[in-house]
Design goal:
The structure is a homodimer.
Chain A (H helix, E strand, L loop, with lengths): L4 H14 L5 H8 L3 H11 L4 H16 L7 E6 L3 E7 L14 H14 L5 E11 L8 E11 L3 E10 L2 E13 L16
Antiparallel strand pairs in A: 1-2, 2-4, 3-6, 4-5, 5-6
Chain A binds a DNA duplex (30 and 30 nucleotides) through helix 3 and helix 4.
Chain lengths: ~200, ~200
Amino acid sequence: MRLSKKLRQQSLKEALQADPFLNDEDLARRYNVSIQTIRLDRMELGIPELRERIRHMAQQQVRALQPEEVIGRVIELNLDESGISVLKIQKEHVFSRNGIARGHHLFAQANSLAVAIIDAKVVLTASANIRFIRSVRLGDECVAKAKIVQRSSHRLRVEVETCVEEETVFRGTFIMVRYEGDGEEGKEKPDADRV
Amino acid sequence: MRLSKKLRQQSLKEALQADPFLNDEDLARRYNVSIQTIRLDRMELGIPELRERIRHMAQQQVRALQPEEVIGRVIELNLDESGISVLKIQKEHVFSRNGIARGHHLFAQANSLAVAIIDAKVVLTASANIRFIRSVRLGDECVAKAKIVQRSSHRLRVEVETCVEEETVFRGTFIMVRYEGDGEEGKEKPDADRV
DNA sequence: CTGAATTTAGTACTAGGTATTAGGATGTGG
DNA sequence: CCACATCCTAATACCTAGTACTAAATTCAG
C-alpha cells in the first residue's frame, strides 16, 4: 500500500538526510508516486533539488578541506612571543548526547596555536600537561591565549589558557621543539621528542 | 593580450583547483575565449564538468561528516577495562611541509579511546599528561592501547600508549570523570572538572 | 602561400530540475 | 448522492550546464 502524504513526506525527509544523492526519479520509484508528487513534497518540505543539495555539501567541504593550519581563527600573533585564537564550538565538536565539547578539540586549538606562535621551519610538540577546568558547550566561543614562557636553543615552553567569556576552561603547558630544518626537511626522524 | 594555449590550460587547471565552482562561461570570460575553447581545454586536461566536480567533493564530504565517535577504528574493547584502536595517518593529519603528524591527532585518538572504554552515560576528560616520544609520519598505522589503571567512584585514571610497528610513539595518562547522568543529562555544568 | 593548429559557431541531445496549468482520483461532510 | 477539498498526475514551456559532433573561420609557422 502507498503511504499517506504525511508519512511519505516524513520518510522522504529522512531518506534525503541519509542519502542526499537521490534524485526525484529515484524517490518517485521508492514511494510509488509520480515525480510531480515528489516535487510537490520537496516544495512543501523546503528541500532543494539534488544539484543544490550537492552544491551545498561541496561548499562545506571546501571549508572542511582547509588543511586547518591552525584549529580556530588566529586573531593576534606576536611571532616567538604570543598569540590568540578563537574557536566557536560547533555541532561536530561536541558529544551529541550532552552537547559538551570533546576534549581533543580544545587540545587541538591550544596545540596548534602553540605551534603557530613559534617561528621556525619545523615545530613539533614534545609533551604536554593539560587540564580541562570546566566543560565547554555547543555555541561557546573559546578564546585561547598562548605565551612562550621559556626558551632554550630548540626547546620552548608554551603556556596556553583558554577562556569562554572570561572563565578559564582549559590550561595547558606544552613543551615544543623547533628545527630550522636547513636542508634536511624531508629526512627521517633525527632523534626523539617529536610529533 | 590573450595567453597561449599552453599557458591558458596551465592557468585553467590552477584556477579550477582554487575554485572548482567556476563554470565554463565564467572561465571563457576570464580568458577571453569562447566557451567551446574552454571545453576543449577541459577535455584535453581531463577535467570533468562543474557538476561532476561538485558531486565528487560532496561525496568526500559524506565521509568527512561522520561524527567520528572515536578517532581511529576500535579493534578491541573490554568495557571498563581496556581497548585498542588503530589510526592510519592520512594527508589531512600531517604538516604538509614535512609529512609529520600533528600532535593533536594522536591526542585525539588516545583521548577518544579513553572515553570509549569507560562505561557510563557521560565521560569527560579532566586532565592529561602526555608525551610525544617519536614523530609519526604519513602512512603510519598508529595502534593505541588504553587501560584503566585506577578507579574511584567517578574518577578514573587511564593510560594510553600508542605504537607504530612495536615502537612507542606516544604515551599519556588521562584523568577521566564519569557521570551516570541519571535524569540530569541535559543540565548545566554540575561543577568543575569537565570537558 | 600553404597546411596545420587553434578557435569559434552552431546544432542536436542530455539530466535534473522549475513553474505553471489543468485534469483525474479519492475522501469527507452534509 | 452530491459537492467541495485534498491529493495526485500529466503535460508543457523553460532553465542550466553541460556532451558530442560538424564545420567554418582564424592564426601561426615554415
